[in-house]
Amino acid sequence: MQEQKRTGYPSIDKPWLKYYSEEAINAPLPECTIYEYLWENNKDHLDDVALNYFDRKITYGELFGNIEKAAKAFSALGVKAGDIVVMTTVTTPETIYAFYGLNRLGAISNMVDPRTSTEGIMKYIDEVGANLVLTIDVALPKIEKAILGTNVRKIVVASPADSLPQPKKALFLLSNKLKGKSPKRSERCIVWTDFVNQGKDATPDYSSYKKDTCCVIVHTGGTTGTPKGVMLSNDNLNIMALQYRLLGVEFNREQKFLNIMPPFIAYGVVCGIHMPLVLGLTDVLVPKFDPEGFANLVIKYKPAHMLGVPAHFEKLKNNPKMNGYNLDFFESAGAGGDGIPENFEDDINAFLKAHKSKYPIAKGYGMTEISSAAASCHGNVNRKQSAGIPHIKTIISVFNAETGKEQKYGETGEICMTAPTVMLGYYHQPSETEKILRKHADGTVWIHSGDIGHMDEDGFLYIDGRVKRLIVRHDGFKVFPSQVENVISKSEYIESCCAVGVTDKGHYQGQRPIVFAVVKSCKENAVVKAKLRELCQKELPEYAQPVDFVFVDSLPLTPIGKIDYRALEKQAEEMSKESNSLAL
Question: pTM value?
Answer without folding.
Answer: 0.84
